[in-house]
Amino acid sequence: MRTLLLALIFICTAFSAAGQSRWKQLVSQSQSQWYLGAIKKDNPQMTSEKDCPPDLKTAVPESTAFDIALHPYEIDPAVEAISIEYLFANDCAVLKDLRLLSDLYFPLFERHLEANKLEADFKFLPLVLSALNTSYSDGHNKAGLWALDLPRAKKSGLRMDQFVDERMAPDPSTHAAMSLLKSYKERYDGDLLKMIVAMMRGVNFADSFTPAQKIDDELTFELTALHVCLRLFKNTESTNHLMGWLTYLNDYQTIGFKKTFHWEALSLIPSVNLTTVRGINTCYIGDSIPGLFRGVPFLLHKSSMDEFMSLEDSIYNYKPVVKQINKAVKPHLPEGEEITYVVRSGDVLGTIAEKHSVRVSELKRWNGIKGDNINIGQKLMIYGKAKAPVQTPSTIPAAPTQPTGDYDEYTVKSGDSLWLIAKQFPGVSAENIMEWNNVSNDIRPGQKLKIYKTK
């Protein structure tokens, strides 16, 4: 089966690079969630699968209305193969993590969907919206398990202020998502595919959407990934670990606070690790925890409850130490040029670094990036090379002549960038292609580019 997948990837090259990059970024962020890492560490038996790929059931599950609704959308076999291969990579690490999270959240989704008389398979939608990450944020507008944007969240009555973002709380965000789905069901007369697209892109896009129209790379990949998750999750054997989750979470207890106090005050409790407490209370986003708020339960480990009660007055009266903020010193580039780059769909640190002739390590250092993840809309500071000295007419070199000789004509495909194209031709750089064709970084599908033979 794996050989077949690799063959499909090799043969069918028209896949969605932008959508694939976004989904991988989502899953990577999801896998770094504190409580996922904690339960895997404390209960390693919960992540053990005997086989990879998992055992396939002999009988294909009966198609549901949700599955049938996806059929009019034409699935690209290359994108489908890439999605499956990604889930199966590294001993099925991604698939195992998503399954483990689904055991925690699917019962919540199912309960809400059933109560609202909505198709049960909508529970799979957060797999591609957020990769089941309660603390998901695109850094601009969308957040939470259901990737709700600000206007829709506010319309649904969720609280979002300097203290709390209820989009990052499972129950309130799911309740809001059900409200949206019910409104979309009425708006689109029960058209499940339009309801799915509306959740992904909003009603302005969904109103004019038809399965036959050409859609962008990200939506192509999202719909295909949803199709793959739906079929794999329904047609593979897996142990349900809900009881393991409940046993683990049973060690935490709900606590209410009489007054607003600074997060740092919890560090007065010897048994409290602030990273752990923040990790399990993801919707409390500010510097302070609001008092008299009961909208979303605040969880604290049972072992810390008595200590909190004994230190309660000190916690409420805690004053954070005002730290001297040292402004970051910019790199010493007396003749360099400072550039602000806004991350776009499909960008990764490697492509941005090569585009600006800098190192990835420099990008990370200049912008305080510890890992490899960047978000669409994120602003990066880039410090260019020293400006060339002003030249007199006698010192200005002659303009480069157009190369002669054999060349290949390359047709730009959807998802291409000059960097990706250059990688396909040894000895050719993105700058070469720009010079040979008198183009900028903005290229479009169908455009013809000359790629000269290099010696």
In short:
The chain is mostly helical and 455 residues long.
Secondary structure layout:
Elements: H1 2-11, H2 17-31, H3 34-42, H4 65-70, H5 77-115, H6 125-129, E1 142-143, E2 148-149, H7 150-155, H8 170-187, H9 192-201, H10 203-206, H11 217-234, H12 242-249, E3 252-255, E4 261-262, H13 274-280, E5 288-289, E6 298-301, H14 302-310, H15 312-316, E7 338-342, H16 349-355, H17 360-367, E8 379-383, E9 407-411, H18 418-423, H19 430-437, E10 448-452
Antiparallel strand pairs: 1-2, 3-6, 4-5, 7-8, 9-10
Helix pairs in contact: 1-5, 2-5, 2-11, 5-8, 5-11, 8-9
What does this structure look like?
- This protein is mostly helical and 455 residues long.
- It folds into 4 domains: 2-243, no CATH class; 252-316, no CATH class; 328-393, Roll (Membrane-bound Lytic Murein Transglycosylase D, Chain A), CATH 3.10.350.10; 407-452, Membrane-bound Lytic Murein Transglycosylase D, Chain A.
- The strands form 5 sheets. The protein has a two-stranded antiparallel sheet. Strands 3-6 form a two-stranded antiparallel ribbon. Strands 4-5 form a two-stranded antiparallel sheet.
- Residues 1-16, 324-336 and 386-401 have low confidence and may be disordered.
- 44% of the residues lie in helices and 8% in strands.
- The protein is globular, with a radius of gyration of 26 Å.
- It starts with a helix and ends with a strand.
- A hairpin with a 4-residue loop joins strand 1 and strand 2.
